[in-house]
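Risk mitigation, structural track. In case the binding assays with nicotinamide-adenine-dinucleotide fail to produce interpretable data, a predicted complex structure has been prepared as a fallback.
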Amino acid sequence: MIIQPKIRGFICTTAHPEGCKQAVLEQINYVKSHGAIAGPKNVLVIGASTGYGLASRITATFAGGAKTIGVFFEKEADEKRTASPGWYNSAAFEAFAHQAGYYAKSINGDAFSQSIKTQAAELIRRDLGKIDLIIYSLASPRRVHPISENVFSSVLKPIGQAFSGKTIDAFREEVKDVVIEPANNDEIAATVAVMGGEDWAMWIDFLLKENLLAEGMKTVAYTYLGPQLTHAIYKEGTIGKAKEHLKLTADQLNHALSGIQGEAIVSVDKAVVTQASAAIPVVPLYISLLFKVMKEKGTHEGCIEQMYRLFHDHLYAAKPPLRDKEGYIRLDDLEMQEDIQQKIRALWPRITSENVRELTDIQGYCDDFYRLFGFAMKNVNYTAEVDPQVKIPSIK
Ligand code: NAD
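Fallback model:
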């Protein structure tokens, strides 16, 4: 099969196995070239196949030498469709990890369900004994609640009043005004049910009860705060409410984990191009401008650079991890620097469809988006036949 990108709105419905493999290899090479970290030995990554979760898994393995179990929800290829990029990434990650002699196994299924938690617990008990680090990096539009069986769908809306502002159709390079009506109470509650901390707490409580958490273990979940420009749609919107709940959950988990000197932490990460962030109004235009300004200053980072910093400078640094006054780890420190944000505030009102190429790094945004699906990679021949059927070694 010759695989080309097929863009539908803010998703791409195809993925390229060779390109995904290259993207994983680039991340592995990045961490290997930055030196070893005396990190955790046994790691569970929930949401391990793309974005920040994949970068965390790569860092734990190739900088820390850890054994990893990855949980994700991805699609295998069939006669008509390629697999999802996270499937190809995980196949490549496992193959590279095994070649280098590292333990890596994966579970593909709904992490919100009790059955996947039970499967993970059985695998941990059988192969690893106890876990030192749990990364919680799920981004999902829906959740079937494991007890009530209610189906919750998250929404990306403001709260209290309608939002009107600029957004972009990145592939048409059209800068448009959008008006987004505020969420109702049910939508807010549903978003908190999907993207808040309840499922994180269910994982930790269950594994603690099963006696599978090591003394002094850590668990980390990811959030975003961002500048004023994005607050109505992010920090002060429905997703922000869910993220507040995630932070409250960390505080509760710290209490629950005190008996094993465990720690629950929320890390604030930078805005990057992932399948999750592409779906948020306003954010892709903000990211395009952010990339332009940060690349000019030489401080631009993607997922892997930040996850390496998270492990190296924060979680497993010789000194106690630096936290802000609310207890967050701040990997968005470079994004939030005043000179960067001041330039963004000055340029934002001027952006139009006509000058978006010149004022922002829309090209960089689109390239990163294609790369998520294994396209626009160097060293891949996209006109060559490729077999879309790829196995993840540990998944039978
Ligand atoms: P992503 O879309 O790249 O990855 C999501 C992961 O979750 C994938 O591995 C996917 O398979 C998995 N997943 C989704 N639903 C699942 C389910 N039901 N069961 C099992 N696995 C499931 O997302 P991302 O952007 O890396 O986001 C990860 C976290 O980082 C989120 O909490 C997000 O809010 C946060 N974050 C993202 C950004 C950003 O700019 N992208 C910035 C800061 C924080």
